[in-house]
Amino acid sequence: MGDKIATREAYGNALAEFGALNNDVVVLDADLAEATKTVMFKKKFPERFFDCGIAENNMMGVAAGLATAGKIPFASTFAMFAAGRSFEQVRNSIGYPHLNVKIGATHAGITVGEDGATHQCNEDIALMRTIPGMVIINPSDAVEARCAVEAAIKHVGPVYMRFGRLAVSVINNTPDYKFELGKGIYMADGNDVTIVATGIMVEQALIAREMLLSEGISAAVINIHTIKPLDKEILISAAQQTGAIVTTEEHSVIGGLGSAVCETLAGVCPVPVVRHGVDDAYGKSGPAKELLEYYQLNAAGIVEKVKLALSMKI
Amino acid sequence: MDNKIIELQKIATDIRLGAVEAVFNGKSGHPGGALSSADILACLYFSEMNVDPKNPTDPDRDRFVLSKGHSCPGLYAALACKGYFDKKELKSFRHLGSVMQGHPDMKAICGVDMSAGSLGQGFSAACGMALAAKINGKDYRTYVLVGDGESQEGQIWEATMFAAHYKLDNLCLIIDNNGLQIDGKVADVMNTMPYDTKFAAFGWNVISVDGHNIEEILSAFDAAKTVKGKPTVIIAKTVKGKGVSFMEDQAGWHGKAPNAEQYEQAVKELEDYKNELK
After folding, report:
1. How many residue contacts between A and B have a Cβ separation below 8 Å?
2. Of A58, A184, A297, B150, most Cβ neighbours within 10 A?
3. Would you tell me which residues 164-183 of chain B have a C-beta closer than 8 angstroms to some C-beta of chain A?
4. Cα-atom radius of gyration of chain B, to the nearest Å?
5. Residue A24 neighbours by CB distance under 10 Å
6. What angle do CA B265, B271, B274 make, to 5 degrees?
7. pTM for the whole structure
8. What are phi and psi of A38, to 5 degrees?
9. What is the pLDDT along chain A (314 residues), one digit of tens a residue?
């Protein structure tokens, strides 16, 4: 594992990189270009960057209008405002007409840190998942974030990308890494239980796997970078093979990956599923790393949930 | 009177007839705002806008967004009159399986440039269309119709700022200022007046017209095109339910379908008016 890079940083870099290859890419921001890192695109292509000011709802509508005219707009702001404040604009102006708008939502989850609960969006996946036709990508590191941007440009239709503020390890810089929209990735094999992870929790799942191995527990780890459409095949096969699932995400346990996995397995292969994430509560101010410990969004927290899942295994 | 004016008055009356037919057959819908905006729609689709029903996705075409999407019986009737689809389709308005959705669906209907209906949103999309023209170096114009009640939405003023900031002189906003909304008079529910000084303060070119006077509407569109560096708003004073005596200036006809007797009377009044036009 190399240097730590925030996925928002990778997002900004990728916009500048892929923006050079496609003139239709335009970037909108709502006074957060320095924070969302769209500033990297702005510096390179100022004529294709439009600050909308602190008016996210209008930004989503402008993005929709640009898309009707063939542009590929990336609308960026914090997840709280992209998915939360502008939910209905995204639903009605982008989702319903299935317009080719890409939403780059940064500062998702509790790793926003010191800004606290008002800015820590633990609900965005839940909200976006209810919009028909919306693609949701939650990358686990900088490598995957770059791939998410590339895939979003290629995909025709609305895409919601979730990026974080906290610098995290690069875990996918391997020669055989391949990003395929809508496909989960087996990060490690195992027989007793499968940890299904998304976003920054993928790294923690891999650490948890090592901890479990020392206790004689063999856990498989799947990285679900695309939460919608969900790779049902890989989940059903994991449930059949290991008979127990633990989901982990830096998001509410309500409505996110955990819920999506339960919905998928309940009617097909109902094995015990334990959801690990932010419980039904708001965040708090504090350094991101301390918050991850406080909310047990770490390998130790996953290990605990794995043991719970194993205890329920028939 | 000028033949062109009479012709547009006839078309506006046909739009009203189509709107009333749609709402009657749909057994629900919004006749009031459709009738108040019919003259504006006639001027846009039959004089002002460069659109061709045979080439509805032409990238160079002018755009129209009905931000007050509930008034779509008027838009559907205008599109039918223009030849985008058969007028008979209007009878399927709001029926299950019809493309004539209760609020416009751009995916379903040929000629609809933007899905809209959730108030305040279409205006922003129109800003995006106008901005795209600037980016792409195209000279099409974008027109967007909002309601005066709709102007209570905060997003309207976000878009108002945006259009002025980016100097979208290829954008023309029309306010269907009929003065009524569901709960009563706009002035009583939540006053949005005055528009002229508000928009001027936001940096817009402001033109006020009688929204039922074809000549005034046409000259406002002409004047809008000559103004560079700022968007234009046309404040169109209208009468809700215009053209059907018992619907005129009645908030109760915002979202209600006429019964068979009322429908017949509405059609008779509109046809009588049309026959008088010479």
Report:
1. 110
2. A58
3. 165-166
4. 17
5. 18
6. 145
7. 0.97
8. -65, -10
9. 468 999 999 999 999 999 999 999 999 999 999 999 999 999 999 999 999 999 999 999 999 999 999 999 999 999 999 999 999 999 999 999 999 999 999 999 999 999 999 999 999 999 999 999 999 999 999 999 999 999 999 999 999 999 999 999 999 999 999 999 999 999 999 999 999 999 999 999 999 999 999 999 999 999 999 999 999 999 999 999 999 999 999 999 999 999 999 999 999 999 999 999 999 999 999 999 999 999 999 999 999 999 999 999 97
| Inter-chain touch A62–B136, beta carbons under 8 Å | no
A48 neighbourhood in chain B, CB within 8 Å: 135
Domains of chain A: 5-168 (3.40.50.970), 185-312 (3.40.50.920)
CATH number at residue B41: 3.40.50.970
Chain A: which residues have CB within 8 Å of chain B? 26, 47-48, 50, 52-53, 55, 57-71, 73, 88-89, 92-93, 96-98
Three-class SS of residue B53? coil
Quote the domain boundaries for residue B121: 3-276
- Our count of domains for chain B comes to 1
Q: How far apart are CA B19 and CA B24, in angstroms?
A: 8
| CB B45 within 8 Å of CB B270 | no
CB contact under 8 Å between A61 and B123, yes or no, is yes
Chain A interface, best mutation among B57, B62, B66, B131, by max A CB count within 10 A:
B131
Cα–Cα distance for residue pair B272/A65, rounded to 1 Å: 41
Instruction: Give the residue from B57, B129, B156, B166 with the most A CB atoms within 10 Å of its CB, the best one to mutate.
Output: B129
Contacts of A81 in chain B (CB under 8 A): none
What integer pLDDT is reported at residue B2 of this predicted model? Answer: 86
Q: How far is CA A260 from CA A41, A162, A230, A297, B137, in A?
A: 34, 16, 8, 19, 44
Which candidate, A246, A292, A288, places its Cα nearest to that of A8? A288
- Residues in chain A closer than 8 A to B158 (CB atoms): 52-53, 55, 57-58
